[in-house]
Every structure is written in structure tokens, then in C-alpha cells.
Write a structure and sequence with these properties.
10 strands; single chain; globular
Length: about 325
């Protein structure tokens, strides 16, 4: 699979990576054997970038990745993790001593001396503007605890604030056919600054797979049930912030745009891959078949211009007014 450079870090990532939120928590229970099979299927399909976080399953996702990579020393996989969501979300918690403690825990979970890429995990907005925060992250690099650092953001404004910092290697942001604002507000600035873009929530929590209807019921421990209106964390993380009923209807229209040979999910992933400035897209997967199908999007033909135009028209007509004023 093609790889792209992650901004200023010089590190490389496959254009389709693997998000491992599903392997930790918040999407219903996943057996460890099944989780390891997902990682194996992704790696066999050419994926060389795994994204995780210390809060996914309270460390379970990191530990599962470590177990998998210990058994596959032949693989070169860059592992990006995130930190900061295991404590009260106040700016005062984002200090060097806490960073070191969080880093120690993630290094233990992942079984490494130095983490490849660490991202602040959607912290309170003032954190992105704090000189002390970036000084602390630079110290972590100097101490060889981390090779590079980036941020995960909720809003375009947060992304732009972080991109202005010279040490930021990457910005992880929600980007998909139902969340287009970053295309014109963030990606051009990131390209100019040499900052990598990690596109998350690429399928709008599964909406863009075309599998769901208005009658679909998600498990009680699935965030698509308990965070549908932002009860537990930012609403934009669930269905990209789109009202579910609207999203299901728009997703059916989106699925009808898929060219021959594409699934709706692959159409969404291919659309993201083709956006100038995107480094990698990180769909999750609950089974081997999903992992393989997601990776296959990297090798599909370039989308026809009329398909791209139709996707834009659908977004403007059905989705834009719901999301652009918030994120």
C-alpha cells in the first residue's frame, strides 16, 4: 500500500490506517481473539499505521496492539497513541508531570521505550494555545519518551491554532463526506506548514457504510446509543454530529453514488484519500472482513469527477447546515 509522510516528523503511514477505538471500548464488547484477528488482517492488507489511545478500554487497545506486534516482529507498524482523556478535562491537568505519568503508562501498555507519535486527545480548547503545553511536549521529545507529537481536535479553529506551533507533526480531525469544512479551512494551511493530517471518523460512525436504517438498534454500551446527543463526550464524535434520522436518509443517497466495484464505505474512504493534504485515514473495523475491505480502498481507481461533484452536492443540500457552525 502507498505510504505518505506524516508532516514534520518524517515518519511514514499507509494511506489507509487502522483506528482501534473499537478494539478497546465504546462500540460494544470485542473478544481479544477477534481484536487480534482484525490487527492481523489489516497488517496483511498493507496497513502500517495503527491509531489508539490510553483511554480506549482504559488501556486495553494499547495492550492488544502490543500483544499482536510481539507476535509479529517482522512487521514495521507505526503506532500513534493519544493521552489526556483519563482525567478531568480542565487545562490545569495538561502539565509535564502528568504527561510523563501518562507516557509511562502508555509505554508499559505498548511495551516500548519510546512512543512513535503521541497526540493530545481532544483537550479543552485553551490547551491548544498554551506555551507551557508545547514546552512540555518538546521536553518529552528531548527525553526520548516520544519520537513526535501531534494533536487530535474537535474543531477547525483548534486545528489552526495547533498548526501554528513548530513542533506539531500532525493534526487528527474528523473528515468525511458528511464533514467537509476541514477541506477548505484546515488542509491548505496544514499543507503549507508541513503538518500531517490524520482523518478520523471517516465513515461517520458507520453511517456511510449504508448498513443502517432508522430502525437500527445499537447496544447500550455503544456510543452510538449513549452519546447520540453528546451526553458523554463531544457529539461530533458520534455520527459526525449529524442527526441520526437525517444521516440515515443522506447515507442512502450517498450509497447510491458508489461506482461499480465500490462499497459505500470504500467510496467514503477513497474520497478522503484523494483530498490533497490527507496523510492517512483511520477507519475502525470489528472483524477481518471489514479490515480487508477498508484497506482495499487504497487500490481502487480514482473517483470520477461527476461522483465527487455529486458527493459535494449531497453534503451541501443535506448536511452542511447541521455541522459547519459547530465544528
Amino acid at each position: 500500500m502507498d505510504e505518505r509522510v506524516i508532516g514534520r516528523s518524517g515518519q511514514r503511514a499507509s494511506v489507509v490506517g487502522l483506528g482501534t477505538w473499537q478494539l478497546g471500548a465504546d462500540w460494544g464488547e470485542v473478544d481479544e481473539k477477534d481484536a487480534l484477528a482484525v490487527l492481523e488482517a489489516a497488517a496483511e492488507s498493507g496497513v502500517t499505521f495503527f491509531d489508539t489511545a490510553d483511554v480506549y478500554g482504559d488501556g486495553r487497545s494499547e495492550q492488544t496492539i502490543a500483544t499482536f506486534l510481539r507476535g509479529r516482529p517482522d512487521l514495521h507498524v507505526l503506532v500513534a497513541t493519544k493521552m489526556g482523556r483519563r482525567v478531568d478535562q480542565i487545562p490545569e491537568n495538561y502539565v509535564l508531570d502528568n504527561f510523563r505519568a501518562w507516557n509511562d503508562r502508555s509505554r508499559r501498555n505498548l511495551g516500548v521505550d519510546r512512543l512513535d507519535l503521541v497526540q493530545l486527545h481532544c483537550p479543552p480548547t485553551p490547551v491548544y494555545s498554551s506555551d507551557e503545553v508545547y514546552d512540555a511536549l518538546d521536553t518529552m521529545v528531548e527525553e526520548e519518551r516520544i519520537a513526535a507529537y501531534g494533536v487530535s481536535v474537535e474543531t477547525c479553529a483548534e486545528a489552526l491554532t495547533a498548526i501554528a506551533r513548530p513542533g506539531v507533526a500532525s493534526v487528527q480531525i474528523i473528515l468525511n463526506p458528511f464533514r467537509m469544512k476541514p477541506l477548505y479551512e484546515v488542509l491548505p494551511v496544514a499543507r503549507e506548514a508541513g503538518v500531517g493530517i490524520i482523518a478520523r471518523v471517516p465513515l461517520a460512525s458507520g453511517l456511510l457504510s449504508g448498513k443502517y436504517t432508522k430502525d437500527t438498534v445499537f447496544a447500550a454500551d455503544d456510543h452510538r446509543t449513549y452519546n447520540r446527543h453528546g451526553e458523554a463526550f463531544d457529539q461530533g464524535e458520534t455520527f459526525s454530529g449529524v442527526d441520526y434520522a437525517t444521516g440515515v436518509e443522506a447515507a442512502a443517497e450517498f450509497a447510491a453514488l458508489a461506482p461499480e466495484g465500490y462499497t459505500p464505505a470504500q467510496l467514503a474512504l477513497r474520497w478522503i484519500i484523494e483530498q490533497p493534504g490527507v496523510t492517512t485515514v483511520i477507519p475502525g473495523a470489528r472483524n477481518q472482513e471489514q479490515a480487508r475491505a477498508n484497506a482495499a480502498a487504497a487500490k481502487l481507481p480514482e473517483l470520477p469527477s461527476e461522483t465527487v461533484a455529486a458527493i459535494r452536492e449531497l453534503y451541501v443540500g443535506r448536511i452542511k447546515d447541521q455541522v459547519e457552525n459547530r465544528w
